[in-house]
Amino acid sequence: MGVVQPLVVVITGASSGIGRATALAFARRGAAVVLAARRSEALDGLVRECAGLGARALAVPTDVSDPAQVERLADEADAAYGHIDVWVNNAAVSAYGPFEDIPPHVLCRVVEVNLLGTLYGANAALRRFREQGAGLLVNVGSMGGEVGQPYSTPYAVTKFGIRGLSKSLTQECRDEPRIHVCTVMPSAVDTPFYHQAANYSGRALRPLPPVMPAERVAEAIIDLVARPRDVVVVGAAAWFMRLANALVPRVFDRQSPRYVLHTQFADEHEAPTEGNLFRPHPAWAQVSGGWLRRGRMATSLWRVPEARRVLGIGAFLAAGFLVWAVVSRRLFR
Predict the structure, then answer these.
(1) 38-88 per-position pLDDT tens digit
(2) Which of 28, 70, 197, 228 is the most buried (most CB within 10 A)?
(3) Would residue 81 show up in a list of annotated catalytic residues for this protein?
(4) What is the predicted pLDDT for the residue at 6?
(5) CA 294 → CA 38, 61, 291, distances in Å?
(6) Which is catalytic among the residues 81, 96, 120, 155?
(7) What is the pTM of this model?
């Protein structure tokens, strides 16, 4: 899409990763960006980057798990720019490890940030969109919110919830043709997310390969301004997981935990940590987590045995379905 200068865009989780990439992408196109995260220093640096691109930018330090802070974020955006056109619910945390090994207070915190934070943001945004008669709400989900995500179960639970939120709000807004609710569902992304997550697995974390740059997700979000859609799946791996889960669900469920254990957890030991769940991490105020510089993170799914089994079965069934569809069309047209 071209210049989006009239737009005012609120982005949560803007200090790093997808949020930071999205802020910079909107800034390059002339939008005014309102940046929310817990780390004020990281936001100040991002404001300077956006200003260097010629964009107006406002930093509003926010913990999205606090509804009062989310409301203040919306109020400050309104006060600065007079309206809000796009609200991107992106802030998220995660906890990894066998479900029973993750402490209850950590489980609660993941839900508070990811799901309740998204609920609060959606509530603040939609009230203003209805007053304006227009607006775009983008909820950043995950393919784990459709097919499951073993060993990061609390994260998957919140992403399932976000998908339900988006679906329900789309139905509620059916009579508002200029209000759109969209969900972006990526596979693994090269961000600092894995460096900052809570970890109770006993092993070092890494993203599930193949990994894509955060800028790709940012471009998918920006594209929704011109072409709003209910769901946008980003990344070949996300499409593969969706296809495999639909065509061979039992095989997918059996192989998925093996694939995760084989690829997501490194051999290096790591002591249990709460990560950035309760206190923001002082480092990693950047888009990339450095994973794409590690060659193995760009590994094809075909090189992982567990993924290869599912992919082979899925491809076979998909080919069979296509043959059936072609033959049926010829027989019954």
Answers:
(1) 999 999 999 999 999 999 999 999 999 999 999 999 999 999 999 999 999
(2) 70
(3) no
(4) 76
(5) 29, 32, 5
(6) 155
(7) 0.89
